[in-house]
C-alpha cells in the first residue's frame, strides 16, 4: 500500500514557474513508476508526465513537453514536477499517481494509487 500527498500548488502568473512535490509512504517507493496527471474543470483527467522506477526514463504529454520536468528522489520517497513557462491552460488539479513495476504508461486506469491533488491556477 502506498499513500501519496501532493504539495506545491498555488496561483501563478502566466510565464511563471511552480514545483510540485509528491511524498509517498511505504518502503517500496523505489519500485513504483510514478506519474503526474491533471484535471481541469469540466474535463477528464489527463496524463502529464511519468518517470520510471529508477528515474532513468521519463515521458511527457505533448502539451507539457519542453516546459515540465519530472524527477524523483528515491531516498526521500518523493517525486517532483517542475513546471516552467506556465500557461492559463495549465490550470488544473494536479494528481500524483503510482503503479507497480512495469513500463511507463499514460493510462489513468493502470495507476493503482492516487494522491488527493493540488490546485494549480495560472492567471493571464
- Run of helices and strands: EEEEEEEEEEE
Largest sheet: 7 strands, mixed
Strand fraction: over 45%
Number of strands: 11
| Cα Rg | 13 Å
Q: Structural class per helix/strand content? A: mainly beta
Termini Cα gap = 40 Å
- Stretches where pLDDT is under 50 for at least 5 consecutive residues are none
3D structure, described in words:
The chain is an all-beta fold. It contains no helices and 11 strands. Strands 2, 4, 5, 6, 9, 10 and 11 form a 7-stranded mixed β-sheet that branches. Strand 4 (33-39) and strand 5 (46-51) form a beta hairpin. The chain is globular and about 40 Å long. The relative contact order is 0.32.
Which tags fit this structure?
11 strands; globular; 4-stranded antiparallel beta sheet; single chain; mainly beta
Brief sketch in words of this structure:
The chain has strands spanning 4-7, 10-13, 18-24, 33-39, 46-51, 58-60, 68-73, 78-83, 92-99, 113-114, 118-123. With 124 residues, it is mainly β. Strands 2, 4, 5, 6, 9, 10 and 11 form a seven-stranded mixed sheet that branches. The chain has a four-stranded antiparallel sheet with strand order 1-3-8-7, with no helix packed on it.
